[in-house]
Specification:
Distance between the termini: 26 Å
Number of helices: 21
Helix content: 55-70%
Strand order of the largest sheet: 3-4-5
Strand content: 5-15%
Structural class: mainly alpha
């Protein structure tokens, strides 16, 4: 069962459950009602003084900065210094460091659970790196303070208001339905055990491997204290925080002292569009939002620094490959550093070879975890290649059912998704459009209008101005725009669920006016940028007003963020000596219930040994 989950509080909706099957024609479809918490519930009572959210943000940022400075030092020693935008940005260094951390945790997870020993050990290593680079850290903080002075007071006010709004949502319970469906269970498996072979046999979604969940497991208590929440909001909300602070700061600087004020359109517009589309999910451990944040940060860097040094290219390659390990729909992001490495011609093949080697190195632990969880190189996308390890491989029936559900549910996001199996485009597209949220419809309209705008601009450049095509393609913004359209096109053909492609869609929506704004007088770009800044501030204040208007918004959860809503489970059978629980109707969700738990106990499920650590296999007659 999959659900979009973006609903007003107190609302109800019908979603779909199905039994596993070889294809949609043989699925038994059941519709049931999920009641979402009303406005006066715990979901509404979570704004002020979320002390531990801030503490966990500081922990994650400190660990990320330590590894980020270590990565910078390594790259500088081998390939030279990073670009100024990178080395002077704590937010980007933190993102790079968290990518290194995810890679290390993925390797260690083959032998150890993501629990206290790993958490303490890697946090201590990060602290050593911070102390070792203390002079560099001090210079970074001094430079950072100066950059905020350049950005100005209005940028500081907007950033502060946005941080409070993000904190408001980070303190709320995970709202995305898939979080209670399998995210919480997946993270609990990582807390309790090293990589469990064939875990996808227990439930197909438990083979949806993501490094975002590894980071969530790292930055949440493996053994929560009594009455304490699961605390799985940290990584997703930190991504929104880093994107917001970085983009507001860069926008303010470009508008006040920078030579390219048109970049503020991208920086502020990306924050506004991402919050409009994904704000209710900030508190959920959702890989889609993390992938979108990484993509938008990369776009900003590539737009502002179009010609990267070797070290800068390696950093971009690391982040792009990490985005793929977070969400496989980010695959076309790998083209961004590869295209950036194409120019200039001198040393092209050496740069491309080096970049490909780094990308493969980043992806290897992720591929290994895929094989461990499902038996396939990438589940379920690489199912046609066949299993790598047959002993614990997820059955072809399960694989087909999961792949079909992803594709068809994306086309018809409500309960009748199997009907899209044999429908041509002209039949499923109108219903797909009707079922989108208003913010998503606005985003799609802007993207489509932008395509027409750019087509007209190209005709004007090539015909009226006689600009050479080779000169246009060497500009980074039209090149990135074409790559974004490629990402949008592949997303729409494969599985057009909006959350799979926010980086592509938001980037394409903003780059079309940005490309044209470069040709206009600077004064016009400044006016548009300041207008967008004011609009962003109004949006933020309105959002805060909405949250503060909820009952008890300033009094509940003074120190603790909200936990997953409680779910009821029942023992449905036994595997080996372990009772297997299932969520009870109507939604069959396991939430954060005891392991093992699934939506339905499959016939033929067996342990590979005597313990859960040894994993699962399916035995078929």
């Amino acid at each position: 069962m999959v659900s979009d989950g973006r609903l007003p509080y107190g609302a109800a909706r019908f979603v779909t459950a199905r039994t596993y099957c070889a294809g949609p024609a043989s699925c038994t479809v059941q519709r049931y009602l999920i009641l979402h918490p009303p406005v006066g519930s715990v979901r509404a009572n979570c704004l002020s003084h979320m002390l531990l959210i801030i503490v966990f943000w500081a922990w994650a940022a400190g660990v990320g900065l330590g590894f980020g400075l270590g990565l910078e030092k390594l790259l500088k020693r081998i390939w030279g210094p990073l670009p100024c935008l990178l080395k002077d940005s704590p937010e980007l260094l933190i993102v790079g460091g968290l990518s290194v951390l995810a890679w290390l945790v993925a390797i260690l997870s083959f032998a150890l659970p993501v629990a206290l020993p790993i958490q303490l050990g890697l946090s201590a290593l990060s602290s050593v790196l911070l102390v070792t680079n203390r002079v560099r850290l001090l210079l970074l903080l001094l430079t950072y303070g100066g950059s905020w002075q350049e950005a100005g007071a209005l940028a500081g006010l907007l950033a502060g208001a946005l941080v409070v709004l993000i904190l408001t949502h980070a303190a709320q319970p995970p709202t995305f339905p898939d979080s209670a469906l399998y995210h919480a269970q997946f993270i609990q498996w990582m807390h309790r055990y090293p990589l469990v072979p064939g875990l996808g046999n227990l439930r197909g979604q438990l083979a949806f491997n993501s490094h975002a969940h590894l980071l969530t497991a790292f930055f949440s208590p493996a053994t929560p204290l009594s009455q304490a929440p699961a605390f799985q909001q940290t990584v997703s909300s930190l991504g929104f925080l880093l994107l917001t602070i970085h983009h507001v700061r860069r926008a303010g600087r470009q508008l006040r002292v920078g030579p390219r004020p048109w970049l503020a359109i991208f920086y502020l517009g990306s924050i506004l569009l991402l919050l409009m589309t994904m704000r209710p999910w900030i508190s959920s451990p959702l890989a889609d939002s993390t992938a979108a944040v990484l993509g938008l940060l990369l776009l900003g860097l590539l737009l502002e620094t179009p010609r990267l040094s070797s070290a800068g290219l390696i950093w971009v390659g690391v982040i792009a490959a990490t985005a793929v390990t977070v969400k496989s729909s980010a695959g076309t992001m790998l083209l961004w550093p590869l295209v950036a490495a194409w120019w200039p011609a001198q040393g092209r093949w050496r740069r491309l070879g080096l970049l490909l080697g780094v990308i493969v190195l980043v992806l290897l632990p992720w591929v290994g975890r895929n094989v461990g969880l499902s038996g396939y190189l990438a589940y379920p996308l690489a199912g046609s290649l066949g299993p790598v390890v047959r002993d614990w491989a997820v059955t072809p029936t399960q694989l087909t059912a999961d792949l079909v559900e992803i594709r068809l549910f994306a086309r018809r996001p409500l309960g009748d998704w199997p009907l899209a199996a044999k429908q041509p485009l002209e039949e499923w597209l109108p219903l797909w459009w009707m079922q989108q949220e208003p913010a998503d419809k606005l985003l799609l309209l802007v993207v489509v209008a932008g395509i027409g705008l750019i087509a007209g601009w190209l005709v004007w450049q090539l015909v009226a101005k006689k600009t050479a095509y080779s000169a246009l393609i060497k500009r980074i913004d039209p090149t990135l725009y074409l790559l974004l359209l490629l990402g949008c096109g592949s997303w729409f053909v494969a599985a057009p669920a909006m959350r799979f492609a926010y980086a592509y869609l938001i980037g394409a929506a903003l780059l079309s006016p940005l490309i044209i704004a470069r040709e206009l007088p600077i004064r016009w770009s400044q006016i548009a940028g300041w207008g967008l800044c004011a609009l962003s501030l109004l949006y933020t204040l309105n959002g805060l007003h909405h949250e503060l208007a909820k009952p008890a918004a300033l009094t509940a959860h003074v120190t603790w963020p909200a936990d997953y809503p409680e779910v009821r489970t029942q023992v449905a059978g036994q595997v080996g000596s372990y009772p297997v629980r299932t969520g009870v109707r109507p939604n069959r969700r396991c939430g954060n219930a005891l392991l093992p738990c699934t939506d339905s106990l499959s016939l033929g499920l067996q342990l590979r040994g005597t313990t859960l650590r040894q994993g699962f296999r399916m035995v078929q007659d």
